[in-house]
Amino acid sequence: MLVAPQLIITVIFFIWPAGEALWYSLQSVDPFGFSSQFVGLDNFVTLFHDSYYLDAFWTTIKFSTFVTVSGLLVSLFFAALVEYIVRGSRFYQTLMFLPYAVAPAVAAVLWIFLFNPGRGLITHFLAEFGYDWNHAQNSGQAMFLVVFASVWKQISYNFLFFYVPRAAIHPPFVDRSRSH
Mind giving me the DSSP string for 101-146? Predict the structure, then answer.
């Protein structure tokens, strides 16, 4: 009985919409939604034969993989590094939390200021060394920039998950484990 409210919410807001989405995906509907015809899996066959969809799908897989792996590795590295810094460790902990405190709109303006192809700070710095940075014309640079910005935004959140449990271990236990 205590689970009933959660089950009702789950059915209304998750199961029912997912079921309707699946049902609609098996139909061909006119643009205004007045008539529909059951087509089975034909929509999925068409989707998986569309080269634009497949390109977008693999781009999404690459983006998700790069962001997840590099975000976790960088966060783990910084959590381990901050743990071994004795002087100023509170400062570095605060510094690691800074990206989480920056609003997404402010972060977007920051990235535009840094990487604007015409007058960005980092773009200008790279041009001094002969590297032409223009993420608007180079898909590899655009992917790198979006992955880098996403990882930067996630570092502090992941840092907390790695640092807090490690910091909660009583220091004599850590010293004892290092001696063996």
Answer: HS-HHHHHHHHHHHH-TTT-HHHHHHHHTT----TTT-HHHHHHHH
Given a cut of 80, whether residue 32 has pLDDT beyond it is yes
Same domain, 63 and 39: no
| Residue numbers of the domain that contains 60 | 50-169
175 in a structural domain: no
What domain count does the chain have?
Answer: 2
Does residue 178 fall inside a structural domain?
A: no
pLDDT of amino acid 180: 62
The CA distances from residue 24 to 10, 36, 53, 121, in Å, are 20, 9, 19, 48
Question: Is 179 domain-assigned?
Answer: no
Q: Which two tokens stand for residue 37?
A: 């015809």
**33 pLDDT higher than 90:** no
The pTM (predicted TM-score) of the whole model is 0.74
Which of 11-15, 49-53, 80-84, 135-139 is least confident? 80-84
Do the domain assignments include residue 55? yes
Q: What's the CA gap between 39 and 36, in Å, rounded?
A: 9
